[in-house]
């Protein structure tokens, strides 16, 4: 079995998914959003700000066991 990655414009995505799902030989269809560089940088920036707030005592850190239980 082979696997491919295809990048599709947002406005064509619903049509493409209907087409793929109609093909009987397709076993599994996974979708994932591709994060833009800006989104990744924004997330990292927010994480750094949160760490700085925790270090400054402005925010309480979440215990590791609580974090792991959420997963």
Describe the fold and architecture:
This protein has 71 residues and is mostly helical. The protein has three helices and no strands. The mean pLDDT is 86.
Beta percentage is under 5%
> What can be said about the biggest beta sheet?
none
- The low-confidence runs, each spanning 5 or more residues with pLDDT under 50, are none
How far apart the termini lie comes to 31 Å
Query: In percent, how helical is the residue content?
Result: 40-55%
- Based on DSSP secondary structure assignment, what is the total number of beta strands? 0
Q: What is the average of the pLDDT values?
A: 86
Q: What's the overall geometry?
A: elongated
Q: How many H/I helices? A: 3
The SSE order reads: HHH
Rg, rounded, reads 20 Å
User: Could you say how many structural domains there are in total?
Assistant: 1
Q: Name the structural class.
A: mainly alpha
